[in-house]
Records
---
Amino acid sequence: MCRPTSPKPVRTGRTGRPRSAEADSAILDATRAALVELGWSKLTMGDVATRAGVAKTTLYRRWTNKSELVVDAVAVLFDELELPDLGSLEADVRGVVLQFAALLERPEARTALMAVVAESTRDEALRGRIRTAIVERQKLLVLEGRARAQARGELPYEADEETAARNADLIFDVIAGAVVHRLLVSAEPVDETWAAGFTRLLLSGLASLQN
Amino acid sequence: MCRPTSPKPVRTGRTGRPRSAEADSAILDATRAALVELGWSKLTMGDVATRAGVAKTTLYRRWTNKSELVVDAVAVLFDELELPDLGSLEADVRGVVLQFAALLERPEARTALMAVVAESTRDEALRGRIRTAIVERQKLLVLEGRARAQARGELPYEADEETAARNADLIFDVIAGAVVHRLLVSAEPVDETWAAGFTRLLLSGLASLQN
Amino acid sequence: MCRPTSPKPVRTGRTGRPRSAEADSAILDATRAALVELGWSKLTMGDVATRAGVAKTTLYRRWTNKSELVVDAVAVLFDELELPDLGSLEADVRGVVLQFAALLERPEARTALMAVVAESTRDEALRGRIRTAIVERQKLLVLEGRARAQARGELPYEADEETAARNADLIFDVIAGAVVHRLLVSAEPVDETWAAGFTRLLLSGLASLQN
Amino acid sequence: MCRPTSPKPVRTGRTGRPRSAEADSAILDATRAALVELGWSKLTMGDVATRAGVAKTTLYRRWTNKSELVVDAVAVLFDELELPDLGSLEADVRGVVLQFAALLERPEARTALMAVVAESTRDEALRGRIRTAIVERQKLLVLEGRARAQARGELPYEADEETAARNADLIFDVIAGAVVHRLLVSAEPVDETWAAGFTRLLLSGLASLQN
DNA sequence: GTTTAATCGAGACGGTACGTCTCGTCTTCCT
DNA sequence: AGGAAGACGAGACGTACCGTCTCGATTAAAC
């Protein structure tokens, strides 16, 4: 999975010096590094600029504020999430749970995700950015997993399209929510045991959605 | 539910003028009010002090920083959560889900919870504070609900105490996580329909935990 | 030379616990010590209280502010100035110049004198306090020296009383002013050589005042 | 007399936005104004910044503290001192005495001079700043006056250069010291009568320095 | 090969909030 | 009643970042 990180409405003016592509990646790298070291609240634009060997102006030319910069810097981490076919729905779910947990163990990911979500409670635009950059991307995994399970005959095909969508959303929130909450709010580890227990609960539950 | 808010390691020294109890509550009220109006990032200590009719020093004498102040200010909101006996496990779960969702619709609660969780990813002490002030409190509801269901005969009594605890934790993270994620990350409403679907999924899943 | 340091209108009321006399001297000692270590601007009432093993309240009960406290604390230093009879007017003058210079070499004296004078440029009451506590005391030395010189026949007796007073004032300002200015503004040392030169200049000048 | 006020070790770096020259003079003007109104101790950096229409940071970028700012702001007042040729040494001395006294009647000058001298008793750097910004400037007047008197034949030319310098210093401290002490310590006016008396004393004394 | 125009770095700018400090007062308990 | 202890309202301190701005110096496409 890959996608262009084109933050600000680039003036398509022909003439003039073009923006440095190196700068962009240097900035995003610096942002992630700073995030790990300092956390969200201690991270400053000036520091990121210095680390990236870039002027503050260059940052502001591309991102309007800290939140947007961090979303872009971190979004790429969520692209790593994949759904390798492990042979059964149960294995697939357990796999994605552990994979997501591993991602959230990384300080830059956990810090950034929560910080950005927190910021978004007051910022509609940021909420949208999170949705497209992170949420929808993850939701695809749910759809993919379901399709695979249906092909395997583990799950029935749903007749009503709307119901199908609603169920996918529900499952997504249950999986992602449980993992995030366990790790970041309850502050307990997500290990094999927990993943197994959770998967058992979820799969049994899934049956009930079909009637 | 009520509990003393004793923020800083209070020197129990006998002598000297005692801290004003009025100030404490005025500050917490002011913090909640400011949080609603301004959100986490615009909330300033100086503003809180002004609103509370109190000097800035008085704030810092009690709380070392914004995060701790906000945790204490918001924790009381979570005390409102209750588990009225609605006659069945299913009704109880649906009730608590909607109640929790209603709480998170309130701007001060949603903003504060996420902001504080975000901050806590870098702050061990804050994490502890959140746990005792918010998490443990909510977890009691799960235990209460289970006990009630067991009394009704809807759920079996668990033989192994450790398993029982693990299951309670799991259920707690699934419920709280799903609601929070739906509301704050997916940014979709938690209505009767969703609550019903979620409850159905959860209850079916619960059966699997007994074997 | 000695004098009671009774700063504030002492309540002569019979009843109640009498004021600690020890406290007074402990405070003045602490003030001088703090002055040497910290200088005027870094000296704080709280610190003085702590050093003196006394509550801040006790300070404020006796002195209304920093300036008055310091004047009282330092005034005693100027009591040390004496005019031993060295046998001639010239020796007397040189002696008092060196003595005054030695006093102003002491950090607490130089710092306090200037600080208090500076403060007094805006404070009429403080100006009065300085005058009675320091200036008048020093001026007596000039009168004493003149009387002695007149007795020796080195100086004529002045007919007009007013002129006599005016001349004493002039000489006082010339001596004290020159020493203070040399030490604190020009920041050059007052040694035997300078004292000799200055004395020569002054004594020659004195002749002119008689016509 | 005029001179550039170059406060802080200015990085002569080529790049970056250059410092505003307007800001510098606006700040110094504001400082003098605030000094007149409020006096040294009530003068705050924030207030000066506001009056100057400048951010507090801009002040701190140029001056490390209040004292240095005030020295620079006030030094310019001492540039006003001049030595118009009044035809005789006696008239010249009396003129400069009255002129200096007039300067010290101005609240900003008297307050600032003393405050800064007081502060300098603990601050070597400030002492140096005062010396170059104020003292040396005034001392030139003494040299100029002597040269003029020598040209008129009122004073002999001094053979030994070192003695000449020492005498100039002595005279400077006597004049400046006497005026300052009379005005600020004794708190008596410097009028025509006093100036005449002082000048008479000084000129008679000067004769003695030649032998 | 100029011109042109947007980029770059550096760093000063007006702001705002921070968390600390000291002030002088007030309140409580203890002697 | 006096004193110590220490909390209180007030407000300045000096620092750190914010996001904007002015600089002179690149840099490439358009002429």
---
Amino acid sequence: MAMGRPREFDVDKALDLALQVFWSKGYEGASIADLTETMGITKPSLYAAFGNKEELFRKALDKYVDGPGGYFQVALAKPNIRAVVEHMLYESADAVTGPDHPPGCLAVQGALTCGDAAESIKQELVARRAKGEQDLRERFERAIAEGELPEGSDAADLAAYLSAILQGMAVQAAGGTTREQVRKIAEMALRTWPPPPDLATV
Amino acid sequence: MAMGRPREFDVDKALDLALQVFWSKGYEGASIADLTETMGITKPSLYAAFGNKEELFRKALDKYVDGPGGYFQVALAKPNIRAVVEHMLYESADAVTGPDHPPGCLAVQGALTCGDAAESIKQELVARRAKGEQDLRERFERAIAEGELPEGSDAADLAAYLSAILQGMAVQAAGGTTREQVRKIAEMALRTWPPPPDLATV
DNA sequence: CCAATTTCCTACCGATCGTTAGATAAGTGA
DNA sequence: TCACTTATCTAACGATCGGTAGGAAATTGG
């Protein structure tokens, strides 16, 4: 069987470079010309290897989630809830201000708003963030069942609250806030953790 | 002196409609065609009245800041720091989930990331957010001077922390989170307020 | 009524958008 | 060597991007 001409670039490396571009410019802000230039390949090579811009973004997002964004699942797997939240906050602070990649979080800034053409990408990111919050909620439910959190604690509320803090740190980082300052946000959130349940609703 | 043909549309109303478009699609995602269609005017009318896309955005942003975003300054003016933070959190929760306008916050989602052409708009938004945080910091400094916050409290850290929570709520809202859920985030943040100073650094 | 001024609209500008033909080059298997 | 397959490149596609000429229409002051 004929194998054809071998590819002259490393698909995985090229995808990683595409990730950097999407990460710093967002889905809409990253043009195909931006991407091919950074990836060091021509447009037809990009399309042959990755389909189209949308598919390329989705592949880059997958790579992000279990690469730079992998700390999230690592944190979820910690044995006690305090460790989960600590890890989540500290690692997130470092992740959104990492010196070797763009600041912020791809899942937040990839397409927080967009034109009609990118609507499905925006929805994908909404769904990913919701999934992360849902995972967090389930982890909190377990912690509540195991008596690790104050009686009356609401897992869904805790998950929404922590998600908001993480996303807020990502926005700060995207705006150029330093690692040290973002770490302080994480520390302050942790200093008040866990938020007591609303006694009025118990 | 000849006065010329009178304008057939209300500039202020048109600007408000442009604001809605930028708010929901972001600076890059909002095309001139989107804008003119929503504003009910033609392209030459838009350019004659507002200069260009960038100027239009800046004018819409000004309108946003002292319209839908006006709660921020209102909160800052509250007489005690508890009222400032309460108002800031609750009004923000309602503002980013208002039923009569797009969800989220223009200063966050207008251009969190973008291509090269929109870089100056992104920087403008970064500066606006930084200004808000700075205002907050000054308000906390005053509160500390007046003995309203625990000894050792750091005004800059408190401002960064609260800013992050507000921005996190905006991200949540942009993703479709309901008003009730965002309000719960505000309530939880308030329940733990104020975060105690880090005793290790005192 | 006429000149001056300003807004209106249609039609278009060059540049860039994402995407793809079509030809050529480089490899494999027979 | 020759067919086959796949990657490479240049060059282009139609659509849309932000922005603008140029002329008709509507107002004012004379």
